[in-house]
Amino acid sequence: MPTNFAGGLNQDTRSQIVDLLNANLVNTISLTLAVKQAHWNLKGKGFIGVHELLDDVADRLRESADTMAERAVILGGHAKGTVEIVADKTTLEAYPLELQDIQEHIAHLKERFMEVGNAIREAAEVAEEAGDEDTADLFTEVSRTVDKDAWFIGANAEAA
Asked: Does the entry feature the keyword rRNA-binding, yes or no (predicted)?
């Protein structure tokens, strides 16, 4: 591993946490790309509001991804977020490319946000159990943002 910039964590813990950060990084990048896919293609009642919301959501996801990637490097690892790695490692189902209906996009995005939020909360627990409170806090903050964006998106559903 490259240079470590966080004291108090042994090599095994740092390696475990870097892997955990990268696993959540790829899903966050995958989710960001799904959000942009929906942003470009959605049509229907409420279009402009959801269209603009999704740009803001993508920005927050990119910020969260950046924070996770930087933490991996701080711990002496490498951030692994190339398109090739994301395509190979994401646990998210491929986003449907032919969707247009705004309600279908909302449903697909909400489902993915719930999945990513759950995985990030699980990562926070693992980081805490490993003794890395800083990364646990990072994951907790990211999960709050993901949950809030799930709400922002899901509240646009006709059945909300």
From this structure: no
Boundaries of domain holding 100:
11-154
End-to-end CA distance of the chain: 47
Task: Walk along the chain (160 residues) and give the pLDDT tens digit of each residue.
Answer: 578 788 888 899 999 999 999 999 999 999 999 999 999 999 999 999 999 999 999 999 999 999 999 999 999 999 999 999 999 999 999 999 999 999 999 999 999 999 999 999 999 999 999 999 999 999 999 999 999 999 999 999 988 6
Instruction: Give the number of domains in the chain.
Output: 1
Residue 107 in 3-state DSSP? helix
Extract the tokens encoding 80: 């692994």
Residue 133 belongs to a domain with what CATH number? 1.20.1260.10
Q: What is the pTM of this model?
A: 0.96
Instruction: Tell whether 98 is covered by a domain.
Output: yes
DSSP state letters, 36-63: HHHHHH-BSTTHHHHHHHHHHHHHHHHH
SS3 state at 102: helix
